[in-house]
């Protein structure tokens, strides 16, 4: 077994911490994409939803039954 090369020594504490930081960064990226909108974007979406709801209500046919 001459010439056998051993692997590098790895500090497990550092490896775990680095892995946790990477997972945390991925979670933060997901949260930014999911919740990171400006106030103007949120109000614009709310206004669009209200307009769509009013448009649907205007086309509702009332026949007297409350079913």
Put the structure in a nutshell:
With 67 residues, the chain is mainly α. It contains two helices and no strands.
Description:
The structure is a single chain. With 67 residues, the chain is mainly alpha-helical. 66% of the residues lie in helices and 0% in strands. The chain contains 2 helices and no strands. It has helices at 12-35, 39-58. The chain is rod-shaped.
Gross morphology: rod-shaped
| Count of alpha and pi helical runs | 2
Question: What is the H/E string?
Answer: HH
Relative helix content: 55-70%
Percent of residues in beta strands:
under 5%
Low-confidence stretches: none
Whole-Å distance between the termini? 84 Å
Mean pLDDT: 86
List the helices and strands and how they pair.
Blueprint: H1 12-35, H2 39-58
Keywords:
single chain; 67 residues; mainly alpha; 2 helices
């Amino acid at each position: 077994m001459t010439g056998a090369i051993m692997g590098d020594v790895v500090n497990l504490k550092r490896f775990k911490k680095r892995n946790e930081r990477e997972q945390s960064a991925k979670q933060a990226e997901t949260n930014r994409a999911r919740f990171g909108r400006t106030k103007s974007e949120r109000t614009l979406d709310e206004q669009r939803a209200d307009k769509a709801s009013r448009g649907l209500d205007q086309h509702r046919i009332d026949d007297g039954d409350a079913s």
